Amino acid sequence: MRAEIISIGTELLLGEITDTNASYLAGQLPLLGVDLHWITQVGDNQARLVDILRQAWKRSDLILTTGGLGPTEDDLTREAIARMMGEELRVDSTLEQELRAFFAQRGMEMPPSNIKQATIIPSAQALHNLQGTAPGWWVESDGHIIAAMPGPPWEMRRMWEGEVLPKLRQRLKRAIILSRTIKAFGLAEAAVGELVHPLLSSANPTLAIYAKPDGIHLRLTAKARKREEAQKRISQGEARVRAILSDRIWGTDNDILEVMVGELLKAKGLSLATVESCTGGLLADTLTDVPGSSAYFKGGLVAYSNEAKIAWGVDAELIARHGAVSPEVAEAMATAARLRLAADIGVGITGVAGPDELEGKPAGTVYIGIDDGKTKKAIFGNYPAYRLQVKLRATTAALFELRKALAALD
C-alpha cells in the first residue's frame, strides 16, 4: 500500500506552526507495513487543494489529510474532497444532533457556521472526534482510501488511534508487524548511525534512527506471517543493537527516564535531592512531573549565583580555586543537596547555559555531580550552545547518569 500525507492550512506555509501531524503519521505508517511516498503541504485554497487530492488519488492507495475541517469559510477539506469525488455535500442529521449536544453540554448555543461540520458525502463515513467539534471522514472507493482528520494535534492523534488505525489494521491483517524502540543517550545521531551501520541494510527487521529530546531512538520493525516469527526477528535485531551500544541504552518503547529513576529509588528505598545552577530547577521540575514522586524526592534547590552555592554549603575556597563550573563544585553541590535535605543521594548541576562563555569555559559546558554517601563522581557534558538546549540536555544527562548509578547500587 502506497501512502501520502496532505497537511492543509495556510499557517503551515507561512511558518506560523510546525507540521507535527505529518511527522507523527510518518512514524506510524511503517508500523503497519505501509510505504509513505509523499508528504504535501497546501494552503486554504479550494482549487489547489482539489488539484493535490486528484494527484494523490492517481498515485496513492492511502491518502491521509489533516486540517481544514473547522467551521470557518477557509476550512475547505470537505468541499475539496466532495468536488474531487463529484458528490454533493448534505447535512447528516445524526452528526448535527451530536454537534448540538456537544455545545449544549457546555452551556452554549451552537453557532450557525458549525453546521458545515455536520455535512458528509454519500461515499464517506464519519469518524468520531472525542476531542473537538470536527468529525473526520473515511472515504473508500476504487481501491483508494482517504482518511480526513482534524488539524489540532491532540484531536488528530485521538482520531488516528481510535478511528483510522483500527480500520487500516482490518485491511492489513495479512501480516503481523511488530516494532521495538531502543533508547540510547550520550552519543550523537551520526555516531550512532556509524556504529549500527551494518544493521541498516537489514530488510526484516528494518532499523531507523531518530534524534529525540531524551537521546537517540532506534526503531526496529519486523514483519511476518506469525507473531512468534516477528517477535523472533525483533529479539534478534535488539540483541545486535545492544551488543553495539551496550550501556548507552537506557530503555525501550514507552520507558521514560524520570519514571525509571523514580522506580529505582522506590525499589531501593532511597531518597533524592538536587542543587541546580545552569538548569534553573528543570531537573527538579522534571522529577516532580511523575505522580507519587514525593515518596522519594526530598526537594531541589536552585543555586544560580556563587553566593547561593556558598549559602547552601559549597566551600567558597573550592569555587575560588576551581571555578563555579568545575567537576569539584558539581560534586560539592551534590554533597550539599544530600546533606542539606537529608537525602540518600544528591545531584548537583553546574554549567554555562550561554550564549556567552563563563570563567573561560564555552557555552554548553556542563558538570553533573552525584553523591550517594559512599562515593562521589562528576560527569562532563558539552552540548549545543543554546540556552534551552543546554538546560534540556543537561537535565536528561543527569537523569541518565542517575539511572546508571542507581542500577549499580546494591
Features:
elongated; single chain; 6-stranded mixed beta sheet; 5-stranded mixed beta sheet
What report would you give on this structure?
The protein is α/β, with parallel strands linked by helices and 410 residues long. Helix content is 39%, strand content 25%. It has helices spanning 10-13, 20-28, 46-59, 77-85, 93-105, 153-171, 189-195, 227-245, 257-268, 282-287, 306-311, 316-322, 327-340, 387-408; strands at residues 2-8, 35-42, 62-66, 90-91, 119-120, 124-127, 136-141, 144-149, 176-184, 206-212, 215-224, 249-252, 272-276, 297-302, 345-351, 365-371, 376-382. The strands form 4 sheets. Strands 2-1-3-8-7-6 form a 6-stranded mixed beta sheet, with helices on both faces.
Which structural class fits the helix and strand makeup?
A: alpha/beta
* Poorly predicted segments: none
> What's the alpha carbon Rg, rounded to whole Å?
26 Å
Total strands: 17
Beta-sheet strand percentage?
Answer: 15-25%
Helix content: 25-40%
Q: How can the largest sheet be summarized?
A: 6 strands, mixed
Distance between the termini: 52 Å
